[in-house]
């Protein structure tokens, strides 16, 4: 019996560059399983040159005809992905929405790096990277509103490993991986899942570097099933990169050596003497995200230099289950969140919270820029952990931010890492302690 989550009835899919090759196979398979498909293709050569076609005979028209002949629903679109908003609006006008986006369109301008010119570089970046961004950006608002979306971006082995004579293409396809990771981070809480594939298939683009026998053997149909699975409700993975071809698929991950941390004041000679350690994968690690990556370094630094907490852990009476805030604290818009945090630390989950971040934190909230901060102490080091209004004598990490930004962070509308990088959340003290204190420690506030 067919799994309904592996069908696409009622779903609207846009497949860019689907007038032939991989894109055509994606469009045909999605349509065969119930999707309404926008077959997008500008009808150019693989190098982006214009071609003349009789009415109804453009590549997108021919694929639409195939779909309709098989009983499916499809519409042809000829806009360039560099104007991605036109493609998405076409889908919305034709079929009432957008649920699935496969960013497959691409061109080549193969040339050695020594001989590449500005136009050859710019054109490839514009189609692959900016095109994928513009299509995704236009679709994003619809996916956010409906709390559902599936995006698959086409990367390449060239973007992962590099390829001679393809500096422009390799750079573009590597950029697609970064775009995929960030869209995954921003979209997953809204049920928008984004993944990337590096297809291994015989197409017009691989004809430029593969033999005819190899192109004929590695059929694009052998990739389509996996890509369409990534577009389904059944797929819950996001932010992943897969190499796919010949009815095979494999997931990639980042791997980093344990590395080598040298003493403060080390010299270039010290680096040279330890060079082999930087490349020794014997005890390799696999960072999952930027926070995980940084945390590993913070932990090693703390261990190497025996960094100790600056805050003591006095034995304290438990926090009250409810707290009476001062007039200044009560006037903050985030007052209900602060009260909730105090209650959670004092409640039955307080020990579990403290176990994940056993430090003393100071949180300074400003009602407006330049205003006097309202301070809170969260002592997750004491037993039992406590929380109260007022600044601690000593702390491990201090967070300072505006009232509105604190609300956005705690309600998961603003990523805390983004807030830090944008300067909206200031941090001082022990960075290892700071990275342990995240909104996920606490249950999301039900209302303000």
TrEMBL record:
Any one GO molecular function term: oxidoreductase activity
Claim: Phosphoprotein is one of the keywords in the record: no
Keyword field: Oxidoreductase, Peroxisome
Protein origin, superkingdom: Eukaryota
Listed Pfam families: adh_short, SCP2
Gene3D superfamilies, per the entry: NAD(P)-binding Rossmann-like Domain (3.40.50.720), SCP2 sterol-binding domain (3.30.1050.10)
Iron-sulfur keyword on record: no
Location within or outside the cell: Peroxisome
Residue stretches making up the Ketoreductase domain: 11-203
One Gene Ontology cellular component: peroxisome
Family: Belongs to the short-chain dehydrogenases/reductases (SDR) family.
Protein name: 3-oxoacyl-[acyl-carrier-protein] reductase
Source organism per UniProt: Nephromyces sp. MMRI
């Amino acid at each position: 019996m067919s799994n309904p989550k592996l069908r696409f009835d009622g779903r609207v899919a846009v497949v860019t560059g689907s007038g032939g090759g991989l894109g055509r196979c994606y469009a045909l398979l999605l349509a065969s399983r119930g999707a309404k498909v926008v077959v997008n293709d500008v009808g150019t050569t693989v190098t982006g040159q214009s071609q003349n076609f009789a009415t109804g005979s453009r590549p997108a028209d021919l694929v639409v005809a195939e779909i309709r002949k098989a009983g499916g629903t499809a519409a042809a679109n000829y806009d360039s992905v560099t104007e991605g908003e036109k493609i998405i609006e076409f889908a919305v006008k034709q079929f009432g929405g957008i649920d699935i986006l496969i960013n497959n369109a691409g061109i080549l301008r193969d040339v050695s790096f020594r001989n590449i010119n500005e136009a050859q570089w710019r054109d490839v970046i514009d189609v692959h990277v900016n095109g994928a961004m513009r299509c995704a950006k236009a679709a994003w608002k619809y996916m956010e509103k409906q709390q559902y979306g599936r995006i698959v971006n086409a990367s390449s082995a060239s973007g992962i490993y590099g390829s001679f004579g393809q500096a422009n293409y390799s750079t573009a396809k590597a950029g697609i991986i970064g775009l995929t990771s960030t869209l995954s981070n921003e979209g997953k809480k809204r049920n928008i899942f984004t993944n990337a594939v590096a297809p291994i298939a015989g197409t017009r683009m691989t004809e430029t570097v593969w033999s005819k026998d190899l192109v004929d053997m590695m059929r694009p149909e052998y990739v389509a099933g996996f890509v369409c699975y990534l577009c389904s409700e059944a797929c819950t993975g996001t932010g992943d990169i897969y190499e796919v071809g010949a009815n095979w698929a494999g997931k990639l991950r980042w791997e980093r050596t344990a590395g080598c941390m040298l003493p403060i004041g080390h010299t270039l000679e010290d680096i040279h003497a330890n060079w082999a350690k930087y490349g020794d994968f014997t005890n390799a690690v696999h960072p999952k995200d930027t926070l995980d990556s940084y945390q590993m370094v913070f932990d090693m630094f703390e261990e190497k230099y025996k960094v100790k907490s600056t805050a003591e852990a006095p034995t304290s009476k438990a926090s009250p289950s409810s707290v009476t805030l001062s007039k200044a604290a009560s006037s903050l818009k985030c007052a209900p969140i602060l009260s909730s945090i105090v209650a959670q630390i004092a409640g039955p989950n307080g020990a579990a919270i403290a176990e994940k971040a056993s430090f003393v934190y100071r949180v300074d909230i400003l009602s407006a820029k330049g205003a006097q901060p309202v301070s809170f102490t969260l002592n997750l080091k004491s037993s039992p952990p406590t929380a109260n209004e007022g600044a601690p004598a000593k702390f491990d990490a201090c967070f300072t931010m505006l009232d509105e930004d604190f609300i956005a962070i705690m309600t998961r509308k603003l990523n805390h890492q983004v807030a830090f990088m944008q300067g909206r959340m200031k941090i001082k003290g022990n960075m290892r302690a700071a990275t342990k204190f995240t909104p996920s420690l606490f249950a999301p506030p039900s209302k303000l």
